[in-house]
What does this fold into?
Amino acid sequence: MKRQIWKTAIMMGVAACMLTACSGNKENSSVDSDRNKLTFLSNFPTDTLDPQLNYTPLRAGIVETLVKTTEDSQIEPWLAESWKTLDNGTTWEFIIRDEVVFQNGKTLDAKAVKSSLERTMKVSEAMKASLKIKEMKADGQKLTIVTQEPVASFPSELVHPNAAIVDVTEKNIEAHPVGTGPFEAVSSQPNSKLELKKNDQYWDGESKLDRVTMLYNEDANARTAGLQSGEADIVYRPEIENLELLKKDESLVVDVVPSLRTQMLLYNTNIEAFKDVNVRKAFDVLLNRQDVVDYTLAGQGVAANGPFLKEFSFAYDAPKKEFGTESAKEYLKKAGYKFESNQVVKDGKQLSFTILTYPYRPELPLMAQLIQSEAKKIGVKVEIQQVENIDEYMTTNSDWGIATYSLITAPRGDSSYFLNSVYGKDGFYNVGHYDNPALSDVIKQLNETVDEQKRVELTRQAGKIINDGALHSAIVHPNNFVAYKENVKGWQMTKSEYYVITKDLALQE
It folds into this structure.
């Protein structure tokens, strides 16, 4: 406990230094004299500004994608003004919008888009797997893309932040990407600060702000303190416990909206124990979902009954489950485990494993603690390991049993992203390389199907297979929340969490 208090104090000090640094040196004094400048403080990690590896450049308004998603989870044109398939979903023709220029003045055409997408697939295995591009041809503003197999939802794949279009001729993309967005990068400090200025050449109208400072801090207490001190104008995900207090402050506005995220347990089926469906089912029912909402989210969320929000027509309505330690014990008995001397034992060995978690979303370590506590009650030994980069750790190590994870499962109002990335053969999140032939067949059919009602039926079939096999456990859907000063105008809390700094943000005099 002393270590945690010490860490929190240090983090708050770091946050204060980060915030005051904006006005504490001569280099920035002229910038701060500009009254039309906004400071945004969040928990978005920014170890790199490479748009094809990190979401921050899109969130910061530096880059844009060919296609974007609306608040009702529909896709619409952005840098591409139109598109169509020339066959059954294998060949696609995109018309790139005219009169768009990069922030360095270079014209955006199909050739530039082609080069950017080629780089995306080169630096990101996840995007290479999801886009499935076989070849591309650029002709003026027309880009023709041929995929390796029919992908009926291909345009929606281009909504992904890592599919953002960047000028690949620039040499320092990791620190200074050049895109087409309303703001351009001025300077950055990894996982600390990003300075932005208005792009005077922006194609979609003048930005209302001249400058934006984006600050990062993983500590929710420090973010809340930054807002209360007046140093930050907008704070993304302030401390949950302080939301009601912030709502009472008449100088602030608090937005709370349902998110498209699901906090889940990913099982590593490379571990012998988790190859057994009954072991997975035991941990699927160990935690009461509502208890997790109350304890880890202070009530700011809803219990999950699957990976997708129930509002989606394609969400599978799983049968009611009995949660708790007794239900978990019954599944462990079916898996051949015995209960001896307060231990769960099989072949003379106690069931034990490591659960991975990460600090970027503080509710996940709390969920890991709940699992550890409940598992101990039935004699299972669980060690908690907190890692900074869980994606990298999961894909390069196999010494863990469960990972707590937070994933936007339907960012474009469609199920294909989640199903392909989590259960596809080459899916980025299929870290256990789990292969279920029946599920793979359904996903293949889904990728080739255009008819919406048929896609709904296929997704529900997939949901039943996932639920029956406990291929992962969906635990809760957390809310999104933000607090900002009342003079901030044009802020829109997006469910996708993709679009944050926009041309419409403004500070009222």
Q: What stands out?
A: Confidence is low (pLDDT under 50) at residues 1-33.
